[in-house]
């Protein structure tokens, strides 16, 4: 058995055996994933042709290589948060994540609740609460006057005056 056994990961991505710039054995491999397809490039130690070529110019400059990835596999450009992380922790990493993962987030919201509009509990709104109390008191006052219950009507009249005084824009 003269051949060495291959590690399990060596069979996952086929690598070119020789440099793409010359015919020497390749020692540096780059896998570029774009549009759901992976392309592997090979370079020998002494051949800088791949780096100076237009294939990986950002690597030659020492910059971070940014390649668009398929929907659902992308990272947030600010914090690097992936959609898989959201599935695990159910929170985003930063404010930019909402824009970076918008299609997946909207699909998840549509699956969880019937519409994209929120219909649940709301923060307490004091002004709206006072308006509702005022409307209810006025209806009860009319009902009390119709039934000739003047004692209740007097109490309701005082409550209405108190509520109206607390409304914004009321004259003192």
Mean pLDDT comes to: 73
The assigned structural class equals mainly alpha
Distance between the termini: 101 Å
Count the E strands.
2
| Tally of discrete structural domains | 3
* Gyration radius, in Å: 34 Å
Strand content: 5-15%
Helix content: 25-40%
H/E series: EEHHHHHHH
Q: Quickly count the helices.
A: 7
Biggest sheet character: 2 strands, antiparallel
Identify low-pLDDT runs: 57-72
Strand order of the largest sheet: 1-2
Form type:
rod-shaped
Key features?
two-stranded antiparallel ribbon, mainly alpha, 7 helices, rod-shaped
Structure, explained:
This protein has 172 residues and is mainly alpha-helical. It folds into 3 domains: 50 residues, no CATH class; 50 residues, no CATH class; 41 residues. Helix content is 40%, strand content 8%. It has 7 helices and 2 strands. A two-stranded antiparallel ribbon has the order 1-2. Strand 1 and strand 2 form a beta hairpin. Helix 6 runs antiparallel to helix 7.
TL;DR?
This protein is 40% helix and 8% strand. The protein has 172 residues and is mainly alpha-helical.
Topology diagram in text:
Layout: E1 28-34, E2 37-43, H1 49-52, H2 57-60, H3 83-89, H4 97-100, H5 102-112, H6 126-146, H7 150-166
Antiparallel strand pairs: 1-2
């Amino acid at each position: 058995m003269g051949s060495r056994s291959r590690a399990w990961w060596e069979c996952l991505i086929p690598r070119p055996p020789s440099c793409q710039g010359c015919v020497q054995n390749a020692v540096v491999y780059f896998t570029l994933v774009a549009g759901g397809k992976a392309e592997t490039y090979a370079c020998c130690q002494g051949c800088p042709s791949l780096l100076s070529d237009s294939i990986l110019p950002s690597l030659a400059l020492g910059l971070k290589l940014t390649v668009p990835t398929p929907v659902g596999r992308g990272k947030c450009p600010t914090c690097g948060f992936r959609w898989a992380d959201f599935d695990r922790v159910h929170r985003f990493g930063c404010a930019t994540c909402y824009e970076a993962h918008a299609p997946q987030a909207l699909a998840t919201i549509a699956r969880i609740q019937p519409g994209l509009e929120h219909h649940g509990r709301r923060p307490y709104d004091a002004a709206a609460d006072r308006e509702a109390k005022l409307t209810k008191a006025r209806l009860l006052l009319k009902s009390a006057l119709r039934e000739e219950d003047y004692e209740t009507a007097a109490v309701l009249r005082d409550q209405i005056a108190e509520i109206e005084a607390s409304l914004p824009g009321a004259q003192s």
